[in-house]
Amino acid sequence: MLSCADWHAQFLRQAEWTQATRSQLYRRANLLRAERVLDVGCGTGVITAELARRTRGAVIGLDLDPESLAFARQFVPGPGVGFEQGDALDLPYPNEHFDVVCCHFTLLWVADPERAVREMARVTCAGGSVLICAEPDYGARVDWPDLPVAEWQVEGLRRQGADPLIGRKLRALLAAARLRADVDVLASLWNPHALRENFESEWALIEQDARAFVPEADRTRARAQAWAAIEAGTRLVYLPIFYALARKEG
Length: 250
Known about the structure:
Elements: H1 4-17, H2 19-28, E1 36-40, H3 46-54, E2 58-63, H4 66-75, E3 81-85, E4 98-103, H5 113-122, E5 124-136, E6 142-144, H6 149-159, H7 170-176, E7 180-189, H8 192-197, H9 199-210, H10 216-232, E8 236-247
Parallel strand pairs: 1-2, 1-4, 2-3, 4-5
Antiparallel strand pairs: 5-8, 6-8, 7-8
Helix pairs in contact: 6-9
């Protein structure tokens, strides 16, 4: 079981992978001039802190987990930033309250992503923006050597109640919420340095996803094969990450 500190480290790594994409989205959404910004599914506050640095307005991070919120309040102190407990499926805010509403690796985990997107659209002002900063598609993951990691993660995430194929559904979710959206994909191909530096943390997540249904001998063998390929310079990992900028028309 990963601790809150472990998850925070993972959120920091995820934020690093998608940093350039977020910067582009922030500029297009005119984040700097937003008066009120909401980060849905903020976790330990990694993206919330970034939003606060990039806007002159007030930022709220919202999450269901009180432990993550307690961590976030320590991680992101200062004026202009607040953290509140709440459900992405029933956002505790009035209609058209925020100029920019965003999420990052969040729809993957919610029980009803279509409803979550509708809620994000509801609390966004007319003319405002909904930013889906990153949603992965584990079903399209490629590993070389040809390891069963994608299959394990798809099954493991489904057992946890997540949707491992959420990325490919993003355009449909935004259309259902009547949002005009530009959807694109980040071709996330790990470089050799990242493969080596993130090996232990990445494999800890794979272990967490697969431990309940993959025999230990199979996990150990796959781990050894993956590390041997890194040492040989032949390891390849590709995971598409989808993102979107959606406008709420007046």
